[in-house]
Amino acid sequence: MAFGGCLSVGRGFIHVSAEGDLEPCSFAHYSDTNLKDLSLKKALQSKLLSKIRKNHAELTKTKGGCAL
Fold first, then answer.
1. Is the pTM of this model over 0.90?
2. 67: β partners
3. How far apart are CA 31 and CA 49, in angstroms?
4. Cα–Cα distance between 56 and 49 in angstroms, integer?
5. pLDDT, tens digit, for every residue of 3-28?
6. In this structure, how many other beta carbons lie within 10 angstroms of the beta carbon of residue 23?
């Protein structure tokens, strides 16, 4: 891919739900942190987002196009 794969989890973009949950992507509604409790800088260091970024090379696209 021209962009180096998936740009979610703060590698290019991130999603904040209406409830304040910091999600990897607007299409992956999973979160382990909420911006009501933490700053954006701290929330980007959450276990979920950090683990996805750390293992980014293992993400592969599925039939639906999303690696997450």
1. no
2. none
3. 8
4. 10
5. 556 767 767 788 999 999 999 888 88
6. 21
